[in-house]
Amino acid sequence: MPKNPPESMQHHLRQRLTAHAKERWPQLTGVTVRYRSGFAYVDGELPGEESVPLRRLRFQDVLHTWGFALYLASSGQYVDNVLPTGLPFGSPEEALDCACRLYLDDPAT
């Protein structure tokens, strides 16, 4: 079974995603990150305590590079995907932006 990242890396990822969401996605009141079998599952917190699954990150033994899968509400599953860079892996912030662009109104446009 794949291992979760070390606790210090988990804490760092939570901090990075929380800071990025606060700066870039004002629709979110926060993000929740939970770990299971080498994956980090990221949900967006909306006003009114509603939680929206956004994506899954695959731990690849490197803090700044994670595999990426989008949550598909239509099937209730996570599906491996590529980022706008064309790569199936990237920074956690890139993955958050990609998922939020699909599920939220982009304030930058």
Notes on the protein architecture:
The chain is α+β, with helices and mostly antiparallel strands and 109 residues long. Helix 1 (7-24) packs across helix 2. It has helices at residues 7-24, 92-103, and strands at 30-36, 39-46, 50-59, 66-72, 77-80, 89-90. The N and C termini lie far apart (41 Å). Strands 1, 2, 3, 4, 5 and 6 form a six-stranded antiparallel sheet that branches. The longest helix has 18 residues, at 7-24.
Question: Would you kindly provide a brief summary of this structure?
Answer:
This protein has helices at 7-24, 92-103; strands spanning 30-36, 39-46, 50-59, 66-72, 77-80, 89-90.
Largest sheet: 6 strands, antiparallel
Radius of gyration: 13 Å
Please state the structural category.
alpha+beta
Please report the distance between the alpha carbons of the first and last residues: 41 Å
Instruction: Please state roughly what percent of the residues sit in beta strands, choosing from under 5%, 5-15%, 15-25%, 25-35%, 35-45% or over 45%.
Output: 25-35%
Per DSSP, the total helix count is 2
How would the global form be characterised?
A: globular
Low-confidence spans = none
Arithmetic mean of pLDDT: 90
Number of strands: 6
State the share of residues found in helices, binned by percent.
25-40%
* Pattern of helices and strands: HEEEEEEH
From the structure above, extract its key features.
109 residues, alpha+beta, 6-stranded antiparallel sheet
